[in-house]
Amino acid sequence: MKRKLSGYGLLFASLALSSTAGVWWGCAAGPADTTSGTGGSTSSTTTGTGATGGIDIMPDGGVDDAEAGTCTSISEKAERVPVDIVFILDRSGSMAGAKWEGTKSALTTFVNDPASIKIGVGLLYFPSFTGDTCDFGSYMVLNVPIAPLPGNSFPITNSFPAEANAYGTPTYAALKGGLHAATAYQDAHPTHKVVVVMATDGDPYGCPDEDLDIIADLAKSARNYNGVLTYVIGVEGSVIPNMNKIAEAGGTGAAYDITNDISEFSAKIAEIKSEVLGCEFEIPMPPNGLELDPKQVNFSYTPQGMGDPKVLLKADNLIDCAGSPGWYFDNNISPTKIILCPASCATVQNDNNAEVNVLFGCNSLVN
C-alpha cells in the first residue's frame, strides 16, 4: 500500500541523540519554499518521481522515504527533551542501617555516573527536618533544588543525613509538597520532562489524610495537570500492592520492588533513567522563518544511522498507539514535543546509533 506525499518539499530537522505553579491537585502555514538553507543548516535534494512519488508502508510500521519525490531537505540540530528527576526519600527510623546505606549508595552512583550528565536532579526528604511534618507546606521547597548534573552531584550527596532517624511516614504531605514543587518546575520549563521518584519502606503512618486512595489521587492529579509522572520504589517493609496503587495513578504502571534486596536500588534507578530518557523530543523551530503547522509534521528513524529512513506513522495520543510503532504530540493544538509510542521508544532507546529527524512541510502520515 502506498500513501502519496504532496509535491512540496520535506524539511528535515535532525534531533541529536545524546516559578509559578498551577493548582494541580484535584484536577484531574502554507507550503514551504525550501530552496536554500540558512546559518548552520545543511541542505540536499533527492530526485525521485516528483508529485507522483509515494511512500512505501513497511511491515515494521515505518515507511521508506526513498521514493519521496523531489525534495529539498534542511537539517536543524535539536536536542532530546531535557529530563529532571525529583527524588523523595523516606528517612524514617525504619530506614536506618543497611536500607539507608543502600539508598545513599544508589543515589551516589546515579549522580556521579557520566551517563547522568545534563539530567536535572532535585531532592526532598520526609519526614521534614523542620516545621510540621504532617503539613504539605513543609515539603513545597526541595531540600536540594533541581539543577543539572554533574554540578548538582555534590549538593545531593552532601545533603545525606548520616542516619535515618525521623518519626513517622507522612507520605501524603511529602508527596503533595514534592509534586507541587515538580509541577511548578514543569510549568516554568515547559520543554522539559519532569518526573518524581519516591522511595519508601512502609505504608503512610503518623498523620491525618494518609488514605492510600487519596495519596494515589495526588499522583494522578499531577500527571493530568501537566504530565509529571510518579515512580515508586518499594524498599523492604513496604506493601508492594499499596505502592503499586500510587505508581499506577502516577502513570508508571507499578512500583519497583526491592523489598528483598536493597542493593537492587541502584539498578532500579538506572531502569527509571532509561525509561524517561530518549522517548520525547523537542520540536525544533521550522527553518526559514516558517510557522509550525501541526498537520505538516513527520518523524523519521534511521536504524543504526544507515540505510533508508523509516517515517513513523502519527497517532492521536498514547492510546491511539495501540501497541504499534509511531509517535504523537504532547498537545495536538499547540505541540512542543514529539513523544514516541512505546514500541518505537524501546527500539530507539536500544539503538545507540539511531538517527532521528523531524520532517516539516508535508502532510503527516497517520496510522
Structure description:
By secondary structure, this protein is α/β, with parallel strands linked by helices. It folds into two domains: 2-18 and 29-78 and 281-360, no CATH class; 83-276, Rossmann fold. The chain is 24% helix and 25% strand. It is built from eight helices and 19 strands. The protein has helices at 98-112, 153-158, 171-188, 212-226, 240-249, 265-276, 318-321, 342-349, and strands at residues 2-4, 11-16, 42-46, 54-57, 63-64, 71-75, 78-79, 83-90, 120-126, 144-148, 193-200, 229-235, 256-258, 280-282, 297-302, 310-312, 327-329, 337-340, 355-360. A six-stranded mixed beta sheet has the order 10-9-8-11-12-13, with helices on both faces. Helix 4 packs parallel to helix 5.
Show the helix and strand layout.
Elements: E1 2-4, E2 11-16, E3 42-46, E4 54-57, E5 63-64, E6 71-75, E7 78-79, E8 83-90, H1 98-112, E9 120-126, E10 144-148, H2 153-158, H3 171-188, E11 193-200, H4 212-226, E12 229-235, H5 240-249, E13 256-258, H6 265-276, E14 280-282, E15 297-302, E16 310-312, H7 318-321, E17 327-329, E18 337-340, H8 342-349, E19 355-360
Parallel strand pairs: 2-7, 8-9, 8-11, 11-12, 12-13
Antiparallel strand pairs: 1-4, 2-19, 3-6, 4-5, 9-10, 14-18, 15-16, 15-19, 17-18
Helix pairs in contact: 1-6, 3-4, 4-5
